[in-house]
Amino acid sequence: MQTSGPSAARQPLPEVNMKFKRATLERAEKFISDIYFTDVNLRGQLYPDTQPVEEIHHYGSSGRYLSPAQATGGRGEVKVGDSFGPTWATHWFRVTAEVPERFAGQQVRLRWNTGCEAMVYSTENEPLQGLTELGGQERTDFILSRSAVAGQRYVFHIEMACNPIMGAGHAGMINPPDPNRTFTLAQCELAVYDPDCAALYYDLELLVAMASKMDDKWPRSYQALYTANEIVNACRVGDRDSYKRCHEIARQFFNQHNGDSQLTIASMANCHIDCAWLWTYEETVRKCARSFASTLRLMEDYPELNFACSQAQQYEWVKVHYPGLYDRMKTAVADGRFISVGGSWVEMDANMPGSEALARQFLVGQRFFKQEFGQYCQVFWLPDTFGYSSQLPQLMTSAGMKYFLTQKISWNLINKFPHHSFKWQGLDGTQVITHFPPANTYGCEVTIDEVLNTVTNLEDKGRVSESLMLYGYGDGGGGPTEGMLERMQRLKDCDGLPRIRPSTPMDFFSKLESTSASSLCTWVGEMYLELHNATYTTQAEIKKANRVGEFLLRDAETVSAFASLLKLADYPHTELLRIWKLFLLNQFHDILPGTSIEAAHDLAKDYYKDVHKSAKQMFVTGLDALLTSSTGQPSTEAAAGAGTDSSSVLTAALVNPFSWQREEVCSVPAGVQVPDGCSVQRNAGDDGSVLALVQVPSLGVACGKTIFSASQASTAVVEAVEESVGAYRLSNKHLHVTIDRHGQLTSLIVNKTGREALPEGQTGNRLVMFDDIPLFWDAWDVMPYHLETRRVLDNATELRVTETGPLRVSVQYKVQISERSHLVQTISLCSNEEFVRFHTRVDWHENRQFLKVEFPVDVSSTEATYETQFGHTRRPTHSNTSWDVAKFELCGHKWCDYSEYGFGMAVMTDCKYGYCAKDKLIRISLLRSPKAPDGNSDMGCHEFSYAVFPHQGSFQDAGVIRQSYNFNHPLSIMARASSSPQAAVPASSSVSWLTIDNPAIVLEAVKMAEEQVEGRPGSLILRLYESFGGRATGNIRFTFPGALNVQSVVKCNILEEAIADSNGATPSLTSSGSQTAQLCVKPFEVVTLRLEF
Ligand SMILES: [Zn+2]
Known about the structure:
Radius of gyration: 33 Å
Shape: elongated
Strand order of the largest sheet: 37-38-39-40-49-46-45-42-43
Bound molecules: zinc ion
Structural class: alpha+beta
Helix content: 10-25%
Distance between the termini: 87 Å
Largest sheet: 9 strands, antiparallel
Number of helices: 19
Strand content: 25-35%
């Protein structure tokens, strides 16, 4: 082969030369290789000339988000080859360059490569584009001019972030980060870029890929091969005219079109940016800026580039930290090219968020999109979450979205999901049109493999004529690149491959609905991901902070709403929104699942502390207002039992955010007077507190001695009797429980029926350990084979009685788990409760061990029930099919139940999410010990509780649902100096603001409406749901204080907009002036009511 020289026509051989595929193909590959023969091949001519920049001035290394102007402490002039670090550090450079004479009229680029992330800024501090290695495919060019002017000077700022785009894992991507990495400035130069050479390069790249990837049973791959060969023969490297001639040969090949029946790929760009993962939230702010700025720049050259972008949080980060870039994004949104999708605050985990939190993802997210861009998102977008709750169809529809996109179920370990386009039917029957891009990724690079996979993988061939391809680097950000767009242009309609049609999410889905909806199959219920099931357990502290936070937010909103309606305090809208945003961010799909690096989890824990503290403060402020007369002084806060003067008599206040009356054994702080005649029990410890049975009405507050009225009426007692040496029987009016010296239950009898819940010869509360070594995804996966390594911890010591009644009895024991870890558990039974509590403290220092607890149950049923958002899901208790086998570790919220007709057993937890009820055994997953990506995951002390609740009748009738709320959020007495007789909650009284006469209907949230009506006392939002799984009619009775008369009840969607009721059963006040509304709900229906006063 000749390099550039006088352009002479090639002289073909007089006879046809027979070609062999391997050699022909490899020859063409080498012609575009960036490794081999670059001195004589086409690839080597992409940048035919280079020139060093004039100066690289290092002027600062400091924290994130520093504007270039503020950077200090630089090294001055640096050069290519210098190194910078350590991991996560930031360095700023000013690069000065001048276009040399010989570059005039050519396309000139700045090339910068440090092997980590970087962004180029203008001298006005505007972010222009990322300069980032994208996992081997580099975005290291920044176009300075398409027709350079000799002598023109350029000055730029470059921010170097010392982290590769996929984090800094030590010797492996998901390993804990190496904190001491340095990065070398390998390249910083001006270069001429040859667009004609590039065009031919992209032609050949595709021809070679088609020749090698397409089925060689058919002629098309050979046609590609021969075209490539012809080009290599005809091309004279360095001769731009020959590039153009060869490009014409390629163009003729790519313009051979398909027949009408060919499938179409609707393509759109996206960029999956994990809000935190192998990096922290702080780095993600910059990842967003790099990715979005790069995409906007690319849009200037490629009009077909449409970009789908999710996660309101990421828009807000850019808005706050990069206002200029945000303005440019807004313009692109208005042009319809930057397309908001998702409608949620972040791409959240879709298994564990509680009911209201899941609704808030949509409320907070959609309101952001509406406020910023004038419209709601129309497509729910959650491509990377580890399983999909069966309530998502109802919630997303209620939030204005009827289309859903994901692809994660393609990661299933055992079973292949049978559809790519289908109707997904949720728990309540709502259906949404759903699509999984058949390439099984959201990070396509527009390769021939991906294009072919989009056709061959498609499960719905014949039913649909279009499927989606999402291109753009993701996870660590990146987005679309020049190469992806060049390839797409050539593959628009090339015979043998599907057509590619640039599209948008709405365009794709509305076409799918209009052309294929009637032929789509239906998938009913949850989309369980058969992988990453350990994410229900990993990072126990995060899970606990999440569960606790959900209840604290509920308390804060409920009390603040009533204080505000009564004009006793302003509703803390701004502060509530601030902490809800932090809370929702922490439900991101690598934080709540516990699959991020340690630094990311630490920051998330700080956010949780902030949320908890603020929510508690709002609750106290609201309660203070309710206990104070409008003219009186606020009551002084006195922390329960702590630091108070024991001589002063404190009054007690109890708040119940739930829609049912409660009676619980509760700790009464020292200084709070318990009326005479009440049964009390001295508390363990010497803080002067006692136990008493307390009472509070539904959605209300009890104050003073009224909280003890249940205690005065009750004679219920509980006792502990030593049955044999070291074994005890605990009993109350509901249960008889026998505990052996290992802390295991040997008998669990429901008194009402005399029925034993445990199978004969088996024990309950067996603590068990498993080896827990997955195949790769350490924090994510627990594999089915872990069950084969089960070991029972039956070496308990020190079993002793610690509480003797009459209100609560307890025994405590200790188990040495290993030389490094131990567990102390207190088993308690209260006089009035139908379940046994297990309060557990673990000092945990294991390596790839999994701690669970087991309760065998003597019932027969093919299904067990697990709580999910606004309802429950039934799953098999057997392993008949491969789909059943895959369900060995399952997500549940506060409870899980295993029942046959008439009898069953539930377990409840206060912060756990992993369960499995199979083969007459319920297991709760307690603690794991993975080592990647957080090398210290779950090490240290843990405190949690679970309970076992054997019951007569169904779990619905037995009250498991209500008790699980109570168990998670026990009554807690607030000690107050006094409350005023004129207060909203007067001294020594109890008030109830709402009652519901049907236990199937559960109140989930009380809040002030986001939008208030001018001149009204305020609009109150109630969120309720049908919890039993049946149709229910109920009366909601409002007993609001003072002049707060409900004037109207309006049914809304979760965006708080009035909706027409498809049931035809619009809730309304039963008569004019009445304070009762009748509600008819479908199974698992979520109802949002807006009350006007
Ligand atoms: Zn992700």
